[in-house]
Specification:
alpha/beta, TIM Barrel, Jelly Rolls, 8-stranded parallel sheet, 7-stranded antiparallel sheet, 14 helices, 28% helix, binds beta-L-fucopyranose
Length: 512
């Protein structure tokens, strides 16, 4: 034994360093990202090592809570509601903001009834007009006639959310076309001050949403955003809030259509999210761009094998119930109907994403009748589709009845796990009588990572197995629709998985 070494190991400095690394991780790995949601790839890692590491990357507690919400709502409301524009230029007269019947309880009550579990309010859009009486600008509700300048929309929404048990989030546009400091380092202080107000004065905040738009401010200058400083403040003041989409917890899916990818991985290369790279990225013209979000393939084996690190970075799918994000009367006849919303649900939540549906309040400060009707219809349809799981009283071949209970109990923590090393297992189900179905729902227990790469559903008909449908990723939830088929015996075949699959739910339904 080398005694000199022993001595070094015992010095207090080494001890302090060890504790430091334990608390904050290695240099380069942002403490903004949870340890269990991030892994570095070593030069010596084989391909199999990298895939093993990918399976171990799991959601943080805040990401898991967010993913399980499934349905979240955007509320775009502000000066644009009164000018009829989508992007205000910052020169608007705050006197225009004057809703006649603003009722945040109506907004949140309707969202809750439709199944939405969290809302995000545009506290400030690109025009810089603040829906709360910020101490750092007069360009806000306090300069408006609404409630004689004593109103606070953020407060009313936060309180309604608490009353209805709905999560509360804020959208604070980094791009500000009104504030004179935009384009100077001072703007980052202004932004920090506004964030501090929003995160300190309204109770619990569950999501902070930063948009990517970054144009010129009132002085014709562009801003270099200090993202790392913003993230650190959010973690300090609201540690359980997820930061989307110019942020480390939630990724923009890449479109605003409501449709996610058929193959949607929540584990993707993490190189752009380490602290130094966030800082470097924010210097670029386009602002912070963690990766090309619009690419078709973000997390295939091929992508992971080229990465230097991996991160849990799941997709949020934002879309408006109307053509625009803000309310415009002329779009009343173009509100997406219940069928369209159901289709969007299948293609967002049903593709391993969280839906962020925008429902913009009108000039009165109320959700309009057409939007309310669409939401009610959507809820009715969802309830109808998922009423009876055909597999509820099925028998799983070679397994006890506990297995089918775990697979159909609606609890994504109870799961069936294939034996270690078995990456291509099958589950064979027998029904009591022949049943018809046209919709498959699968869920993985993502607390143990995202594993499944390819699966298939077969029915046993006329003495032969016939394929009904197939898919690639599952993740938190996957929904596939197909032409109605009747069967008494069927099987779920996992064709490829990164480790033994952990299936938490299997459902077969009939959607009319
Ligand atoms: C975009 C913004 O420019 C839109 O106005 C809207 O807020 C949308 C959700 O994000 O980038």
């Amino acid at each position: 034994m080398d005694h000199r070494l022993l001595k070094i190991r015992r010095t207090p400095a080494v001890f302090v360093l060890a504790v430091y690394f334990l608390l904050f991780g290695q240099r380069g790995q942002s403490q903004v990202i949870d340890k269990k949601s991030f892994v570095k790839i070593d030069a010596s890692d084989t391909q199999a090592d990298i895939i093993r590491k990918a399976v171990k990357v799991v959601p943080s507690a805040r990401q898991l809570r967010w993913q399980k919400l499934e349905l979240t709502a955007f509320l775009h409301f502000g000066i644009n509601t009164f000018t009829g524009r989508e992007w205000g230029d910052g020169g608007e007269d705050p006197g225009l903001f004057n809703p006649s019947d603003l009722d945040a309880r109506q907004w949140i009550g309707a969202c809750k009834a439709a199944g939405f579990k969290q809302v995000i309010l545009t506290a400030k859009h690109h025009d810089g007009f603040c829906l709360w009486p910020s101490a750092y600008t007069d360009h806000s509700v306090k300069s408006s006639p609404w409630k004689l300048g004593k109103g606070d929309v953020v407060k009313e929404v936060a309180e309604a959310c608490r009353e209805f048990g709905v999560g509360f989030g804020v959208y604070l546009s980094p791009w500000d076309r009104n504030n004179k400091s935009f384009g100077t380092p001072g703007y980052n202080d202004y932004f920090i001050n506004q964030l501090t107000e929003l995160l300190s004065n309204y109770g619990k905040v569950d999501e902070v949403w930063f948009d990517g738009a970054n144009g010129e401010g009132p002085e014709g200058k562009k801003q270099v955003y200090d993202f790392n400083r913003w993230y650190a403040l959010i973690r300090k003041l609201q540690p359980s809030a997820v930061i989307a989409v110019m942020g480390p917890d939630v990724r923009w899916v890449g479109t605003e259509s409501g449709y996610g990818r058929e193959t949607e991985w929540s584990v993707v290369p993490g190189d752009a999210l380490v602290q130094e790279n966030v800082a470097a990225n924010s210097q670029k013209e386009a602002g912070f761009a963690p990766m090309n979000m619009m690419e078709e393939d973000l997390g295939s084996r091929e992508k992971l094998l080229k990465a230097k690190s991996l991160v849990w970075y799941p997709a949020e799918i934002d879309v408006s119930i109307r053509p625009g994000w803000f309310y415009h009367e002329k779009e009343d006849s173009e509100v997406k109907n219940a069928d369209k919303l159901l289709d969007i649900y299948f293609s967002s939540v049903g593709r391993n994403g969280v839906l962020l549906l925008n429902i913009p309040p009108d000039k009165r400060g109320l959700l309009s009748d057409s939007d309310l009707r669409a939401l009610e219809g959507f809820r009715r349809k969802i309830d109808e589709v998922f009423r009876d799981n055909v597999l509820q009283d099925a028998v799983v071949e070679g397994a006890s009845s506990a297995v089918i209970r775990k697979l159909t109990d609606g609890n994504d923590e109870t799961a069936w796990t294939a034996k270690d090393g078995n990456t291509t297992p099958q589950l064979v189900f027998s029904l009591k009588t022949e049943k018809e179905f046209n919709l498959l729902v699968l869920q993985e227990n993502i607390r143990k990572g995202q594993r499944i790469e390819r699966f298939r559903l077969d029915v046993f008909q006329g003495g032969k197995w016939k394929k009904v449908t197939d898919g690639t990723t599952v993740g938190y939830k996957r929904i596939l629709r197909f032409s109605p088929v009747g069967a008494e015996k069927l099987r779920l075949v996992i064709e490829s998985s990164r480790a033994n699959p952990i299936v938490s739910e299997v459902g077969l339904f009939y959607s009319r």
